[in-house]
C-alpha cells in the first residue's frame, strides 16, 4: 500500500511539473514571436531610411551574445545559451532579409560549420570551390559575407587566405574559432564492418593513430574533401568517412565514433569577410597588413609603438610581397578597435615607420 501511495505522489508531482513546463514553453513561444515581430519593425524602419543592402550588424550581435553570456546563471552552460540566441537572431534576421554567405565548399565542410556557428543556420550558405572565388563573390555583392580559413593550431597559416588580402579591398568583419573534431561516419551501424575509409589526406593524417589501432585492416583512401568522403560513404557499401557533424547531417550518415583525432586541441580559426567596417564593441581585435623598409631595426620601429601605448599583439606573420625578391609584408593582429584612442595613436606612430599600412578590419573577438 505504501508503495502505491508513493507512486501516486510521484505521478502527481510529475504531472504538475509537466504542466508547469508546458506553460513555460507557451510563454517562451509567445516571447520568441514577439521578438521576431520587433525585428520586422526594425527592418521596416531601416528600409524607410533607405537601408536596403544588408541589415546585419556584427557589433550589435556580438554585444547581445556577450550580455546574454554574462547574465546567464545556469544551469544551462554559456555555450548552450549563446548557441540558442545565435540561432534566434539568425531566424529573426532572416525575417528582415536573409544573409547570403559564401564558404569553402562543397556542402558539409568545416568552413560551412564555421559559417553556421557564426551566423546561425537561417542563412543562404553558398559553397564555392576556392578562396579566390569567395573573395570575388563578396567583392561583387553576390554574397554579403564570406567565411575563409586563416590558420590551424597544428598546421599553421593558410597562406592563400593571407595572399588574397593583398589584392582585395574587403574587410574582416568577424572571426570564428572551431575545434576540429573528426568523426567516423557510415551507413553501417558498427565500425567492425568498415573495409575502406574515405577522407581528405590531412584528416587521415590527423587520425592516423586511431585508424591504426581500431581499423588496422581497412583501406584508407584520400579524396578531395571530407564532404566528398561523406558523399562516397553514403553510396558505397562497407565504407566510412572521416568528417564533421554537418557532413553526417547532409548525407544521412550514422556517427559511429566521435572525436577520433590524434590531437584533441586541434582548432582552426576562420575569418568573416565583408564590404563594410564594423563598429566597436569593447572586446575587439584589429588586423593589419604592413610592409617596412629593408633597414636594420625596421621591424622594431614598427612594433615599438604598440608596446609604448600598451597594445597587446596577438599575432605576426610574414609573407612574400610578390613585388620583388626578399620583399616581405607582415600580417599583424592586435587587441582593440581602430577607433580606440590608444590604438589610434599607436597606428599613427606605426604609419610613420612603414612603406605601407592597410587596416584589414576591426571586429569583435570570437565568442565561445
Automatic annotation (TrEMBL):
Residues 100-275 form the Prephenate dehydratase domain. Residues 8-100 form the Chorismate mutase domain. Transmembrane segments: none annotated. One of its GO terms (biological process) is L-phenylalanine biosynthetic process. The record marks 268 as: Essential for prephenate dehydratase activity. The keyword Coiled coil does not apply. InterPro entries: ACT-like_dom_sf (IPR045865), ACT_dom (IPR002912), Chor_mutase/pphenate_deHydtase (IPR008242), Chorismate_II_sf (IPR036263), CM_dom_sf (IPR036979), CM_II_prokaryot (IPR002701), G/b/e-P-prot_chorismate_mutase (IPR010957), Preph_deHydtase (IPR001086). Pathway: Amino-acid biosynthesis; L-phenylalanine biosynthesis; phenylpyruvate from prephenate: step 1/1; Metabolic intermediate biosynthesis; prephenate biosynthesis; prephenate from chorismate: step 1/1. Residues 287-364 form the ACT domain. It comes from the Bacteria. The keyword Amino-acid biosynthesis applies. Pfam families: ACT, CM_2, PDT. PROSITE patterns: ACT (PS51671), CHORISMATE_MUT_2 (PS51168), PREPHENATE_DEHYDR_1 (PS00857), PREPHENATE_DEHYDR_2 (PS00858), PREPHENATE_DEHYDR_3 (PS51171). PANTHER family: PREPHENATE DEHYDRATASE P PROTEIN, PREPHENATE DEHYDRATASE-RELATED. Catalyzes the Claisen rearrangement of chorismate to prephenate and the decarboxylation/dehydration of prephenate to phenylpyruvate. NCBIfam families: CM_P2 (TIGR01807), PRK11898.1 (NF008865). This is Bifunctional chorismate mutase/prephenate dehydratase.
